[in-house]
TrEMBL record:
It comes from Mesonia aestuariivivens. This is BatD family protein. The lineage of its organism: Bacteria, Pseudomonadati, Bacteroidota, Flavobacteriia, Flavobacteriales. Residues 1-20 form the signal peptide. The keyword Isomerase does not apply. PROSITE patterns: PROKAR_LIPOPROTEIN. Keywords: Membrane, Signal, Transmembrane, Transmembrane helix.
Length: 590
């Protein structure tokens, strides 16, 4: 009986200890303050969680936050973790207030903080927080994400402009990305900002300065309400302090401030079903369509090119061009696809082209049927179709095909009979008169050619044996061959990046392009599917090792980070070596 009680208490203790492992608490910087003072509230957890929801802060105005900070340490083999969301509040008036409950999800469980009671009194003569550098920094710096269109159509481009506002009371010189948005369910492209310009504007009615730190173009790939994740920055802020130097000038104090833009929600509309053309392939924007041919008159077996080209502004990389249909007597090859597309805040603009090579086999006249291209115009909210003109090819010289002539029958039905070709036309291209002449044949036996033909096969036997053994050894070295092929493919895609080492912008653009081209070639995926989440899913489906996938994603993130922060030649060389190794590993596993 005592043993059962002992086991019961042990299990109870273990379960209670497991429950006590998760801590989610709220703490205010003070319980009592004047109406002219400010309050800081921290929501702290000892395990990482998701879907944090703050209270409504009734009775207060949020003047700063949320500022997010994460710290972790290892002491005597034990890991400690702390994640904190901080808000700076200003009272709206006097009274007793309760700061409500915040919620967080940790390992599928929802945790809540207890309410925090705060008393707000009349204004005090000397506010104690007036010189708090963290509160000053939080009150004077803000990150705002501006959306060009919150109700776009599917595959219609929108622009996101991130503005960092700061008041004249503080100074900032640089910032570092702390958490970049993933842009799930979007095709995204960051726009390079060549020069940062500081401008002046009003923020919530007060004079501020601001700088546009990032511009991104998004094309939604799903309909409905989609969320744009916030951008989080770490900004060293120089704040005036109460200390002064020997000349009486006020000294500044630098604090690391974390600022983030808010979650943004857009409502993506479906393309209208009414009036949708049968040949519509998803083009959205404003386009022109042209079909051109390199020549109209040619001979049989002579080649020509026909180009199908779409130009304009829209989702140029996210749809397929129509196909070219030609008569059976024209041999047609797979088209060569070319993209000359650039991206700015107005979206993609440029042109895409499919170039077909055609080779006629017989003499005659061949009409190329008109080609139609359909797209959706968001400005007029309607579908438009552009149809090319018919192309007539005249093949002048070459073999001809037999012709058929209809012969009417006595009844309602009719039959056709094939015309019989005459002997002169049937054998027109066969040389009937060979005009052969006899020649003197020298004796072959015991000649130089005779002995050469006799001895040469004997000499080739040891060469064949040596070559066979060498080939078997190469085939047996499967791992070595795989590695060589992987290295060859890596060199092919990374050669441009290697040539740009030392030039940060060109290097990382070439490196990112090499990674994308490699995956497109190996996995046969489209450019619109090149999101990080999609890449992880595709590599996992093909049993790629998680470590290799993680390394590939880290290189992509390094390319993104390098657009906004300077890096050294040593770091570029490390990224290049890591990319080459990762592509080789991917090639082996795929």
């Amino acid at each position: 009986m005592k043993m059962k009680q002992f086991i019961f208490y042990i299990l109870l203790f273990v379960s209670c200890a497991g429950i006590a492992q998760v801590k989610f608490e709220a703490q205010a910087s003070r319980e009592k303050l004047g109406v002219n003072e400010r309050l800081r509230v921290d929501f702290t957890m000892n395990q990482d969680g998701d879907n944090f929801n703050p209270p409504d802060f009734r009775g207060f105005k949020v003047i700063g936050g949320p500022n997010q900070s994460i710290s972790q340490s290892f002491v005597n083999g034990k890991r400690s973790f702390q994640k904190k969301y901080s808000y700076f509040l200003q009272p709206n008036g006097r009274g007793n207030f309760n700061i409500g409950q915040a919620t967080i999800e940790i390992e599928g469980q929802t945790y809540k903080t207890p309410p925090v009671a705060v008393e707000v009194t009349a204004a005090v003569d000397k506010p104690t927080d007036g010189s708090n550098p963290e509160i000053i920094a939080a009150d004077n710096i803000h990150l705002v994400a501006e959306i060009s269109n919150r109700t776009p159509y599917l595959n219609e481009g929108i622009a996101v402009k991130y503005k960092l506002y700061f008041s004249p009371q503080i100074n900032i010189r640089q910032w570092y990305p702390k958490d970049n948005p993933k842009y799930a369910d979007f095709w995204s492209q960051n726009i390079d900002i060549k020069q940062l310009n500081v401008k002046e504007d009003l923020y919530r009615g007060d004079p501020y300065q601001y700088v546009v730190i990032r511009e991104t173009v998004l094309y939604p790939q799903k309909t409905g309400k989609l969320t744009i994740e916030p951008l989080v920055l770490s900004v060293p802020v120089s704040v005036p302090s109460d200390r002064r130097d020997i000349f009486g000038r006020r000294l500044s104090e630098t604090v690391d401030q974390t600022v983030s833009s808010n979650h943004q929600t857009i409502d993506v509309k479906s393309l209208p079903a009414a009036g949708k053309p049968a040949n519509f392939t998803g083009a959205v924007g404003s386009f022109n369509f042209n079909v051109t041919n390199s020549k109209d008159v040619l001979d049989a077996t002579e080649s020509l090119q026909i180009k199908l080209q779409v130009s304009g502004n829209g989702n140029l990389k996210l749809f397929q061009l129509p196909k070219l249909n030609v008569p059976a007597s024209l041999e047609i090859y797979e088209p060569e696809h070319q993209e000359q597309v650039s991206t700015n805040l107005n979206g993609m603009h440029g042109r895409i082209t499919d170039s077909y090579t055609l080779v006629p086999q017989l003499k005659g006249k061949y009409p190329i049927n008109p080609v139609s291209f359909s797209y959706f115009d968001p400005r007029s909210e309607s579908y438009k179709t552009i149809t090319s003109k018919e192309i007539l090819l005249n093949v002048e010289n070459g073999p001809t095909t037999t012709t058929t002539a209809p012969v009417a029958s006595s009844g309602k039905e009719s039959s056709t009979k094939q015309a019989v070709a005459s002997a002169s036309s049937q054998f027109k291209y066969i040389q009937l008169d060979a005009n052969l002449k006899p020649i003197d044949q020298p004796a072959f036996f015991k000649s130089v050619a005779f002995w050469s033909a006799l001895v040469t096969p004997l000499l080739l036997i040891p060469i064949g044996i040596f070559t066979g053994k060498k080939r078997k050894s190469l085939i047996a070295d499967a791992a070595g061959n795989t590695s060589k092929k992987a290295d060859k493919l890596a060199r092919k895609y990374l050669s441009e990046a290697k040539n740009s080492l030392g030039d940060q912008k060109k290097f990382y653009e070439a490196l990112e392009r090499a990674l994308h081209n490699y995956l497109k070639a190996k996995l046969s995926i489209k450019t619109g599917e090149m999101s990080k989440d999609k890449v992880k899913t595709l590599l996992a489906e093909r049993s790629v090792q998680p470590a290799t996938t993680t390394s590939f994603i880290e290189i992509l993130e390094s390319c993104e980070l390098a657009r906004y922060t300077p890096t050294s030649n040593v770091e570029m060389q490390k990224d290049y070596d890591k990319a080459k190794k990762t592509i080789s590993e991917l090639d082996k596993q795929l």
